Amino acid sequence: MSVWARLNPKGLDMNRFSTALIAVALAAFATGVVAQKPSVYPAKKQTSQQQKKDDGECLAWAKKDTGIDPAAASQPAPQKTGPAVGGGERVKGAAGGAIIGGIAGNAGAGAVVGTAVGGVKARQNQKGENEQAQQQQQQTLNTYYKAYGACMEGRGYTVK
Fold this sequence. Notes:
Elements: H1 3-7, H2 14-31, E1 40-42, H3 48-66, H4 70-73, H5 87-104, H6 107-154, E2 157-159
Antiparallel strand pairs: 1-2
């Protein structure tokens, strides 16, 4: 069995499979948090042993000072998905579509179209909420690392 056949058990053509794979990779990258620990340089000739000690103490101080646990804060932001979210939008869409469809003589078709429109609105709302959660998470980590950097600078390190 070829590698392509193992990667593509459903028999998708290569273009569709590649597009799907790229979309999954981009989605995984987009949900990751970008904040990272700043780089620290011993500007006053501190030894590596001293730098390790200062690093540990400043990480602990930043956690205590900000109340932020970077291990917890760097977990992927919860993503809202699924049919339960936005159900109200779908119901509103179905009702509106049924009314419009009833006027036009086909309430069933109107309800189907209305449900689809409601689903689109629900997905847009979910996307906005997910992006807002990710931005909040980013700001939280930035606050923590700003405190860490201030501590290290106070101990004579250059922080970038």
